[in-house]
Amino acid sequence: MSNKQLDLFSSCANNEEKEINELKTLTDLLLKYQHEYYVLNKPSVSDKEFDLLFDRLRFLEEKYPQYASENSPVKRVGSDLSSELPEVEHTIPVLSLDKAYSIPELLKWIEKLKKHSSASVSPVLIAEEKIDGVSIVLYYKDGILERAVTRGTGETGNDVTANVKTIGAVPLKLPEKVTVAVRGEIYLPLKMFAKINQAFDNKFANPRNLAAGTIRRIKSSEVSKIPLDIFVYEGFFEDIKISTHREVLKKLHDLGFRLNRNMMAFAESGNASLPAVDDFIKVSEMAEIASYITQEEKTKETLDYEIDGLVIKIDNIEDREKYGYTGHHPKWAIAYKFESSEVESVVNAIDIQIGRTGRATPVARIKPVEISGSVVSNVTLHNQDYINFLSLSVGDVVTVTKRGDVIPAVENVVKKGDPASPIWEMPKNCPFCEGELKPDGAHLFCTNDFCPERVKGQILFFASKDQMNIENLGYETVELLVREKIITNIFELYTKDFSVLEKYEGYAQKKIELIKKGLEKSKKKPFRTVLSSLGIPDVGPKVCQLLIEAGINSIDAIYEIAEKGDAEKLLEINGIGDKTAESFFKYFNDAAIRETIKKLSEAGLSMKNENAGSAKVSALFQGQSWCVTGSFDMFKPRTIAEEEIRKRGGDVVGQVSGKTTHLLCGQEPGSKYEKALKANIKIVTEQEFLELLKK
Ligand code: IVH
C-alpha cells in the first residue's frame, strides 16, 4: 500500500469510527430529547432541530445497522413486521385491586388497616388517580426495556413490546443499569380520542377501548399513528431496596418515567415518618381524605384523560408485605370507584336491524338493566369490526355504559358465557327479505328495494313529524301495513284504499277516516319537504333547501342534472360535496325510484317549488347575519325560517360568532342561545319573527 493509499485508508477508518461514535451519541441525545418532550413536557430543542438529528441518526443506522441500538429512538416509528402478540409469563404477580364504592366503605377499610397495624401510629396512605386505560408491565433489564406485557390473566399477558416502543413517553433506555418491573396505564388523551374515533366511524365506545385495540394491533407502524400516552404508578426493583412508595415514585421519576402528579399523601399528625412537607408529593391530614376524594371527583371533569376512581395505597413497603395479598389483590391497597354509569348485563341475543337505507346494524338484546336512570335492553354493536374488537359471543357477560352521551354502548366482555363459543358473525342474508347483504365500507347493506323492513323504515321516515307529517299514521299502523303487504312502496300510501284496515282489530271506521285525512293533508306539503322526505342518503332538509335556492327547484330540473351527470352544477353550491353529489346521481338515476316519484306525483304531491326561485321579497334583513336555533311551531323544518330570512336579504350562518347580528330562537335552544346572550346579540322569538315577516 502506498503512503497515499494508507492515508486514505486511515482517514476512511477514522471517518467510520467517527460516524459510529456519532451514531451512539445521537442515540443518547435523542432519547434525552424525547424524554424532555414526552415526559417532562419541556423540550430543549425545536421540532425542526429534533427532526434533523433524527434523520441523521436514521441515516447512520441504515449505514451501520450492526451498531443500531435495540432501543434506538428511531424504533419508535414502529415497524411493519407482523407479530402474533405471543403470550408470555409475568415475572411479578400482576394483581388487581379490591374496591370500595362509597366513602364510608373506604373509611371502614382504613379503620381495619389501623387495627391490623403493628405500629403505634396509623400508616401513611397515598391516594392516586385510577387511570382508566390499558394496564401494562414494562420489564427493564440492566436499564434496557426488554419487554412490555399486557396484564392478561395476571400470570400471563400478551407481549406488545414493539407497539409500546412507539409510545414516546416510555423510556427505552434508563440512565442507570437497573433491573425493574414497572406497572403503568396506557391511555389516549380525550381530545385525541374524539378526533381519531371519527376516522374509525365512531366504532369505539371510549378512549380505553381505542387504546386497547391499538396496543393489540399487529403492525406497530399503525400504533405509532395513534398518540397513546402512559402514566406509571408502581415499580418493583430487583437490587435496590426502597422503603416507601413515595421513594419508589421519586426514583421512577428520576429514571425518566412519566408519572401522574395528581396525588396526595395522608398521615395522622403524630406520624413522624412523613415530613409535613415533601418535595415530591403533597401531604395532608388523614382527616382530610374524604373531602379530597369528593374534590377529585369534581376535578375528573377537567382532566384530559379518564379516571374511574382513586387508588389508596399504604406507603411503607415493609408494611405492605405484612398486610399481604389474596390471590386477586393486595390487602394494602383499595380502589375507590367513582359512581359510574357502568353496569353488567348478559347478551341474550344479537339481532340485525335494517334501516331505510338498507344498512344492517347488529343490536345486542341484553338482560334489561338500569343505567343513569333509564332501563336499557337494546344496545347497538355498530358492525362486525366492533364485535370482533370485543370478541363478543351470545351469552357473554358484558359491561354497558352511558358515558357522556345518551347512547348506551357495550364496553367490554367481562366473562365468556361459553369459552368455546365462536365470535358472533353477521349473517350473509337480510333476515327480513333473504336478500344478500353487501359490504360498503365498514357496514353491510341490504340492497333489495322491496325489503319490507327497509320499506317500513322509509314509510316511518316519510310520515314523520319533521317530514310529511302524516297525522294519525302511527308506528303500529305502519308495521301492520307492511307486515300484511298492504303497502310495499311509499307511493301506495296514497293509492291504496285504507278501508281494508277495517278487518283488523282496533281499526274502527273513525280511526281509518282520521288516517285518510292525515294523508290528504300531507299532500299540501311543499316540494322541498317532499324531496327531503324521500330519504335520499346524504341529502337532508338542508341540502334540499340549498338545491332549491340554487334554482334546482323541480323534479324535472333534478332529472336533467342527474341524466347529464352534471356534477359541476351541484358542486358549485356551497354546502354540497362529493359524497352528496354521488348519492344524488345514484338515487335519481334509479328506475325504480323514478317510478315511485312518478306515482307520488300522480297522487298529487308537489314536484316543483311553487315559490319559484325563492325570489327576494324585500330587503328587510339586508346586511344582517342570522343564526337559527331550537325548534319552531310554524317553521318545520327550520330551513323554512332560514329561507324567509334569505328571501329578505339576510345571511344565515350555522354558528354564533362576532359577526352574527340576530339569533332566531325556538323552543329548547342549544348552546347558541347562551353564546348569543353573552355576546349581546339580538334574540328574536318565533312570535317576534312572525311579526317581522308581516312587514
Ligand atoms: S395499583 C398491586 N395504581 O387499576 C398494585 N392501579 O382495577 C395494583 N390502575 O390493573 C395496581 N391506575 O391497571 C394502581 N394509580 C394506579 C392505577 C391502577 C389505574 C389500574 C391497574 C389495575 C386496575 C385495578
Overall description:
With 695 residues, the protein is of the alpha+beta class. Helix content is 36%, strand content 20%. It contains 24 helices and 23 strands. Strands 13, 14, 15, 16, 17, 18 and 19 form a 7-stranded antiparallel sheet that branches. The protein has a 6-stranded mixed sheet with strand order 2-12-11-3-9-10. It has a 4-stranded antiparallel sheet with strand order 5-4-7-8. A hairpin with a 7-residue loop joins strand 16 and strand 17. The N and C termini lie far apart (104 Å). The structure holds 2-(butylsulfanyl)adenosine. 2-(butylsulfanyl)adenosine binds next to strand 3, strand 8 and strand 12.
Give keywords.
six-stranded mixed β-sheet; 695 residues; single chain; seven-stranded antiparallel β-sheet; alpha+beta; elongated; binds 2-(butylsulfanyl)adenosine; 24 helices
Q: Please tally the helical runs, counting DSSP H or I stretches of 4 or more residues.
A: 24
Sheet with the most strands, sense and barrel status: 7 strands, antiparallel
Proportion of β residues? Answer: 15-25%
Shape: elongated
Helix percentage: 25-40%
End-to-end Cα distance: 104 Å
The assigned structural class equals: alpha+beta
Bound molecules: 2-(butylsulfanyl)adenosine
Give the overall pLDDT as a whole number: 89
Low-confidence stretches: none
Count of strand segments: 23
- As a whole number of angstroms, the C-alpha radius of gyration is 33 Å
